[in-house]
Request: fold
Amino acid sequence: MSSKLDPSAKQAQPAPSAPPHAETRRHRRVELPARCWIEDGEHTYYLRVHDVSRGGLSVRAPVPFSAAHQIVLRLELPGDRTVSARAEVVWVRDSPAADAASGARMGARFLEFLEGEEELYAILGNA
Reply:
């Protein structure tokens, strides 16, 4: 018997890796008609929320925040409800040239709710 591999034998293929932009979030994002105040220690911004989940949110900002930077935010929810939380910026993406006027996208992860956690969860339901 030869020690060479049989070229007609099928070789085991490695499992395909996840696509580069695979969904890895633990919580489903929900578009929410809300605005929020975000303070980073130097600036205060009033922004439209792009989407929100039980774990965090994303917004468009006129000036990009720095990743790993802590912020304080206050969401203005429908029905005059408010959510306040400490959060951490986890990603920042520059806006494409065609969309530069709307600002960069920024995603933040909630670290600690200061008020309104139950109100947010009630609006998000099982998201």
About this structure: Strands lie at 35-39, 44-52, 56-61, 70-77, 81-93, 104-115. The CA atoms of residues 89 and 110 lie 9 Å apart. The mean pLDDT is 78. Residues 35-124 form a domain with the Thrombin, subunit H fold (CATH 2.40.10.220).
